[in-house]
Design goal:
It contains 7 helices and 7 strands; from the N terminus they run ααβαβαβαβαβαββ. It is of the alpha/beta class. Helix 2 packs across helix 3. The chain is globular, with a radius of gyration of 16 Å. The chain starts with 10 loop residues before the first helix and ends with a strand. Bound molecules: S-adenosylmethionine (SAM). The site of S-adenosylmethionine (SAM) has 23 residues, from helix 3 and strand 2.
């Protein structure tokens, strides 16, 4: 029987326990640092963004930065599959649109909200360890909704290793290294959908 963690359980401990239980589905043993969160969100042009989707929010370090910077006219949809993480996200961000769901249902989640176009996707999902078919389906769904000027931002703890993987799906892929994270990490900013 699994017991819900109390609100007093620190993020790092909750995250570490999830990593021990679920391994590759969590893919990291600690949440992203505030430095990584700031770096991945900072270069979004919020003045023109109407919708940002976060996939795999965990305990919410990226969510916090996103909600801090997004103006009222920019809708933020936060998607996370794990119920304990979702509870924590809702406690911490009671006004946020947190969907407890598998990212594989992105099309339906957007349809339910009347969202057709996404300006930016921030993805914390361990995409390289997804089955290839599931990864391709999710990226196809993102391609259908991403605006022509939009970006897909993928967090990673394996700097540069998966550059080629994302180049299969996007015309332009740039990697940004963030040393102030445990372990040093970074993110890809991908633009231009490949057919
Ligand atoms: C590496 S953690 C990133 C957490 C957070 N974004 C951060 O930077 O600290 C990956 C997250 O993706 C979630 N996840 C994994 N597979 C998922 C799926 N198919 N749908 C939704 N969330 C998923 C996990 O529960 C976990 O919270």
């Amino acid at each position: 029987m699994s017991v819900s963690p109390s609100a007093a359980t620190p993020d790092w401990l909750l995250f570490f326990r999830k990593f021990l239980q679920q391994g590759r589905a969590i893919a990291s043993f600690v949440p992203s640092s505030a430095f990584l969160a700031q770096a991945v969100v900072r270069t979004i042009h919020f003045s023109s963004a109407r919708c940002v989707v976060e996939l795999g929010a965990g305990t919410g370090p990226i969510t916090a930065e996103l909600l801090r910077l997004a103006p009222p006219g920019c809708r933020c949809v936060i998607i996370e599959r794990d119920p304990d993480f979702c509870r924590r996200l809702r406690e911490r961000f009671p006004q946020a649109d947190v969907a407890e769901a598998d990212a594989a249902h992105l099309d339906q989640l957007l349809r339910d909200r009347g969202v057709n176009t996404i300006d930016h996707v921030i993805c914390g999902l361990p995409l390289p360890s997804f089955p290839p078919r599931m990864r391709a389906q999710l990226l196809a769904s993102i391609h259908r909704h991403l605006s022509s000027e939009g970006t897909f931002r993928q967090l990673t703890h394996m700097p540069w290793i998966y550059q080629r993987l994302y180049q299969r799906y996007f015309a332009e892929v740039r990697f940004h290294l963030v040393l102030r994270n445990l372990p040093p990490a970074g993110f890809y900013v991908c633009r231009g959908v490949r057919s």
